Amino acid sequence: MKIHPTDIDGALIIEPQVFSDRRGFFMETYHQSRYRKAGINADFIQDNLSLSTHGTLRGLHFQIHHPQAKLVQVLQGEVFDVVVDLRAGSPNFGRWIGVPLSAANQRQLFIPAGFAHGFAVLSETALFAYKCSEIYRPEDEGGLLWCDPALAIDWQVVQPGLSDKDAALPPLDQLSPDQLPQVHYNAGGGVP
């Protein structure tokens, strides 16, 4: 596999090796020892799968006291995947990156604990899979407003379809430190 660093320390784009022939393809989507050699040391304990229609925007979500590292990929369709660095002390605090993920490009994105995460569906439908390092706890969930003007994220969709919950999330400047993921940035300390 090929690992590509992003502009935000810890967030990584992964290109798994794909073996294709006239019948289709085979790829390894996760191999613990190989990912650990690449610096991804998260212990994944929960897998999730979502199906969304064109224009759906899910996010920006995080957990506060039990932050999740995630390994995400698209099995069908295409999304624009966005992460926002919310790690205390990070030189990139409040910065975001967006990565196109699709069944065609077969890329994955590793998201360290302490990031807000969301995606917008660019294709007719998208089947989105993600591994998490912590179980989902509804009472621990936090989030950011998808259209926070301070973030100025270009989601690549016009009039996205949102849940009522996501539409009501606050902008970053209205969140106190105790309402953000309880993760401190660790420069050069590997990827949790």
Structure explained in plain terms:
There is one protein chain. With about 190 residues, the protein is mainly beta. It has a single domain (about 1-180), classed as Jelly Rolls (Sandwich). It contains 2 helices and 13 strands. The protein has helices at about 30-35, 165, and strands at about 1-5, 10-15, 20, 25, 45-55, 55-65, 70-75, 80-85, 95-100, 110, 115-120, 125-130, 140-145. The strands form 3 sheets. A 6-stranded antiparallel sheet has the order 1-2-10-7-12-5, with no helix packed on it. A hairpin with a 6-residue loop joins strand 1 (about 1-5) and strand 2 (about 10-15). About 35% of the residues are buried.
- Spatial strand order of the main sheet: 1-2-10-7-12-5
* CATH hierarchy: architecture: Sandwich
Domain count: the total is 1
Note poorly predicted spans. none
Largest sheet: 6 strands, antiparallel
Strand fraction equals: 35-45%
**CATH H-tier superfamily:** Jelly Rolls
